[in-house]
Amino acid sequence: MSSSVVCQHCGTPVPASRKDGFCCAGCVYVHNLLHQQGLDHFYDLKGGLSLPPVSPQALRERDYEWLADLARLEAATLPTSPGEVRTAPVELRLAIQGMSCVGCVWLIERIFVRHAGGLRVNVDLLQGEIRLIYAPAMFDAVAFARDLQAFGYLLGPPHDGEETRQVTGLERRVGLCGAFAMNAMAFSLPAYFGMPAQFAFASWFDMIAAVSATLAMFVGGSYFMEKAWHSLRIGALHIDTPIALGILAAYLGSLGGWIAGVPGLKYFDFVAIFIFLMLTGRWAQQAAVERNRRKLMRDTSIPDRVTLLDETRSRPLSALQPGMRFSIKAGQSVPVACKLLNPQATVSLEWINGESESMQRTSGQLLPSGALNIGTRSLEAEALESWKDSTLRKLLEARKPGEFRDLRLERLLRVYLAVVVLLGIGSAGWWLWQGAGMATALQIMISIFVVSCPCALGVAVPLAEDLAASRAERLGVFVRSLALWKRLMRVRCVVFDKTGTLTLENPVLENPEALASLDAKSLAMLRTLVTGNLHPVSRSLFDAVGPGQAMPGHEVLEEIGQGLSVTDAEGHSWTLGRGQGGDACFHRDGVMMAAFHFRDALRAESVEEVRRLQQRGLGVHILSGDRAAKVAHIAARLNLPPESWQAEMRPEDKAAWLIANQKDDTLYVGDGANDSLAFDAALCAGSPVTGRSFLEQKADFFFLGHSLGFVSGLLETARIHRRATRRVFAFSLTYNLVTVAAGMMGHLSPLAAAILMPLSSVATLSLVAWTFRRPRTAAEERLPEQAGLAPIPA
């Protein structure tokens, strides 16, 4: 059932199971912290805007050694005074996760100024980055990062990548072409309003318009020319092909008309404005996707470098060879298959086989590539393979979806282009045969090429993409691929991983009343024990206890296979481990304080969503690396027959099953490294945000929260997106038939083309907006339960 109560911190609906007015423990903690530190103005700036809830997992203890190394490296490049004191300011550019509004910018600035040595901070909300300028002798970058983390913001290494450079390049092109378009239009208008050709500055006006259009061609037109040429080279047709044809014809005709003194051929203002509008639409598409990609930082549990035992400096993973001995920090993944050198260790193989239980390993035993060190100390191991041969490296290889080829669209474009070219050339020949001059024939041919250029599509389709993405965000889904909507329309089968996908990432505490019986000191000591540990039980208890102040200066010790222990300032021993009476028991000086029971739980609405997908005629399957008994139990709860699930599958087995059983029509939803190869084999793929997986960076979309109720809503959004684009195509076809007919009869002047182009764009934009303006789907109405939304970890 829906709930009208919204979280006091983030504004998202409060799950029915919570009675405190907050959606999660993370929001409770940050709300109280803002109040205690007098930073309530954050809520005034936020207004009624909903924010991503603060996941408790984002407030766990994090390793900031990378930041300390980066700050040290930047400071080392600065000149020093005679006393070896570095006086010049340091500048650091960092990615930041968790920002969503101007209130976040204000809060980050307030946190920064209270750190000694901080000179200036620039927050880029759109790019998801901050730039710190500080005095290195006074400012502690790690302390600042931990302070930010307490409010739900995570710092990471600066963003980099080809997508970022493409979006930035498009921004520059759009800005320049906007200026060129204004120039071309301003110096073309006088001629439209009757400026005589004998006017003293008429030739200068023409020259400025020509130069502006030429610069727009070089800066912006080249973008579409390159895209069109690339598609032709690989034997495909892209929507940029007719765009490039129209731009090129209008520019060359205008250049010829200007040189020959034929006013009817001057389309300079059209060229510049058209390029600007098309670039704006393309930039809007890519920028929206890039913003979603920037919402998540790279998973820090997968190391970039390792430290060899006989060396002090770290080396890149590519340097790992068999026989090398290296260390693996707590919370990090084993990069290559290796032999354990420590007497004992606790690891998790959930990324490899989907089982969430911890595993104990002793000296000399194998640690598979991708195993996660969930103990409290670093491990030492001897490599048995090189990084090149590592399974983890293969799983980490980025998904390479390429550009989605819609063969039906290509066939339509092929016919469309052939008809346009034949009509243009044929009309020019007809007018020449009727005795019209070459200038008139060229004007008619160029006008046909110009008006048939799909300018309305170039503006309306990006709007459809943006409205569909906004609709998906209301479902807790963030789109990372422009081709997602077309792919979803081809989906006939949905395949789920089990652990962390159909079920929640962490086991659920069945008896929360055991926590309620503990006093404040006991809760603080329990929080101290579980804060830095990645064991599934510790993660669940951390979520249940909620973030807060751990007891400082106390070292948590781990006894492999038995549990965790810590001694407080008064000498009392606190332990968490196995024991009679519960799955985990909490003791003080050997006296049980609480016993905890856990169970694996399905994500909210899993049963209902599977039924809805089946009612849509889609096949539903489970592929899991977990044991058969566990998978069978989950399948039975979902009412899936035995032939609909597979168990004990390796990563290669999942990919092989998809290749053998799908017809390029499968949506795969998974969360672990063992799903990576299946991602590559599926038509499209999605991943929940867990805070420790890298698949969000490979997925076509990622989703937030504890519910699966978004899948049918996402498919419905794809259907609405297709309806909108089809209506735009139908309008464009009708518009082109009318305008091409007018051009063939010689009634389409450059002025008419310049007027019709923006009018047609406005019409298609209105058509798209009208198509998306409709009552919310049932999946969207179910958002409150879905808004166990523990979205993006901060």
Task: Give an overview in words.
The strands form 6 sheets. The protein has a 7-stranded mixed β-sheet with strand order 14-27-26-25-15-23-24, sandwiched between helices. By secondary structure, it is α+β, with helices and mostly antiparallel strands. The chain has 5 domains: 61-159, Alpha-Beta Plaits, CATH 3.30.70.100; 164-294 and 403-464 and 719-774, no CATH class; 305-396, Calcium-transporting ATPase, cytoplasmic transduction domain A (Distorted Sandwich), CATH 2.70.150; 465-504 and 602-717, HAD superfamily/HAD-like (Rossmann fold); 508-599, 3-Layer(aba) Sandwich (Calcium-transporting ATPase, cytoplasmic domain N), CATH 3.40.1110. Helix 6 (162-192) packs antiparallel against helix 7. The longest helix has 34 residues, at 711-744. The protein is built from 27 helices and 27 strands. The model is unreliable at 777-794 (pLDDT under 50).
Protein topology:
Layout: H1 25-36, H2 41-46, H3 65-76, E1 90-97, H4 102-113, E2 118-124, E3 129-134, H5 141-150, E4 154-156, H6 162-192, H7 202-233, H8 240-260, H9 268-294, E5 305-308, E6 314-316, E7 325-328, E8 338-340, E9 344-348, H10 350-353, E10 358-362, E11 366-367, E12 372-373, E13 379-383, H11 391-396, H12 407-433, H13 438-451, H14 455-474, E14 477-479, H15 484-488, E15 493-496, H16 498-502, E16 508-509, H17 513-516, H18 520-531, H19 536-545, E17 557-559, E18 563-567, E19 573-579, E20 582-588, E21 591-596, E22 598-599, H20 606-615, E23 619-623, H21 628-637, E24 645-646, H22 651-661, E25 666-669, H23 676-681, E26 684-688, E27 701-703, H24 711-744, H25 750-772, H26 778-781, H27 783-786
Parallel strand pairs: 15-23, 15-25, 23-24, 25-26, 26-27
Antiparallel strand pairs: 1-3, 1-4, 2-3, 5-6, 5-7, 7-13, 8-11, 8-13, 9-10, 9-12, 14-27, 16-22, 17-18, 18-19, 19-20, 20-21
